[in-house]
Amino acid sequence: MKTKFGCITLFILCIFVFSVQCQTVMFLGNAQHTGISNSTFSANGTFKRLWKFKTHGQIFGSAVACKGLIYFGCDDSCLYALNTRGQLQWKFKTNAKIRSTPAIKDGVLYINNYDGFLYALNATHGNVIWKLKIQKDLPKMGYGLNYCTPKDSLIDDLWDFYASSPALEKNKDVLYFGCGYSMYAVNTRRGKVLWQFNTAGVVHSTPAIYANKIFFGCWDGKLYTLNAKTGKKEWDYQTLSDNENHNLEGIQASPVVFDSTVVIGARDSYVYAFNTMSGKLLWKQKFASTWMPSSFAYDGKYLYTGSSDIAKFLILNKQDGTTIRSASTGTYTFSSPALAIGIAFIGSTNGALYAINIADGTVIDQFYTDGRLSNPYKVIATNGSLNNDAFADLTGTQYATAAKYVRRLFSAGSILSTPAVYTNRVYFGSTDTNFYCVTLSHK
What we know:
It is a single chain. The protein is mainly beta and 443 residues long. 8% of the residues lie in helices and 39% in strands. The protein has helices at 2-21, 370-374, 399-410, and strands at residues 24-25, 46-54, 64-66, 69-73, 78-83, 88-93, 103-105, 108-112, 117-122, 128-133, 141-143, 154-156, 167-168, 174-179, 182-187, 192-198, 208-210, 213-217, 222-227, 233-238, 256-258, 261-265, 270-275, 281-286, 297-298, 302-306, 312-317, 323-328, 338-340, 343-347, 352-357, 363-368, 420-422, 425-429, 434-441. The strands form nine sheets. It has a five-stranded antiparallel beta sheet with strand order 1-7-8-9-10, with no helix packed on it. Strands 2-35-34-33 form a four-stranded antiparallel beta sheet, with no helix packed on it. Strands 3-4-5-6 form a four-stranded antiparallel beta sheet, with no helix packed on it. A hairpin with a 4-residue loop joins strand 4 and strand 5. The termini are far apart.
């Protein structure tokens, strides 16, 4: 009897240790970026705000949740750890804005910032385990980007919001992320670079891992596939270029991988699907003259994504990329969808978080950020679309004018981060400097 009890105790202890030590979270949930959770919400519910947390900067990167704590980075250069009641547990101050999403494995949190540092922190207390200096990150830059003048001036892309985030596998001591003009593989125990692959453009796409391969997009317009162990290129694909205005070109989205297929959207208005082994193009689908900057969620049946100029949440056929259903998101949508059971959550630049029934594409409810509720410049109309009259004074193609346009738009509390769904709650940040926790309650 004593021996039996001892065996049972050991068995329970092993389960507990395994669940504590081996929990792994990252951008869109896992190394394949499928963006799914097993949380449940009311299919006819209404949004309820549970709490909000005020920061000192705009929030572009997405959050992750692990063991009762919520983690996210901010433009105020801090990484925050909150409990599920919205109380600050710890924060870690870096020397530059953080627009990447943390990754956590075995109690260690990994995050990179815009000054070119990769940090390994104790996820419980925020203590530094190690930090690695690599090349400094930078926004996409070019001449005359997005129709801006003067054409001979080197300018930043005002719509390049994100940094590449760490991605890792459960059973390996390696993480992968992009920074500057490179993709890196780093040993997580020693904080040492294993290999570095150089590209012709800035890498802000978060890599997906599948079958010993790394997949990521690049601002040079290519989808790259590397050998995960050696960093050698196995194949790549060049999307379309826009040599005159440098508007409909480049990849800022992250790929999703499933069933030997990798899918990614590009700014050239296409979504592409490839065979992961050969690089053979399986299909491509064009979506008017719109960027496809949102990454995908995948539930084994359909692909789910957002879109910019056509302002839609899209449900796509995984076989050919055709649209099964769609829902309006009012304005430009860069946020990627997060899936719960039967429901997708996605943010929009109009300051609304949408809950969408994936069975029929109907909007269940919308949650408005404080920025959207105040809407100080009246940039958002009552129906959620852009109020063009609010931008009437911003005429011409000067870069300074374009910068004012973006700042004014963000005054409406834009949601550019991807929602994190955890224990039947939804967590996300906004350009109004708030971090929110909401749920869908019964009406």
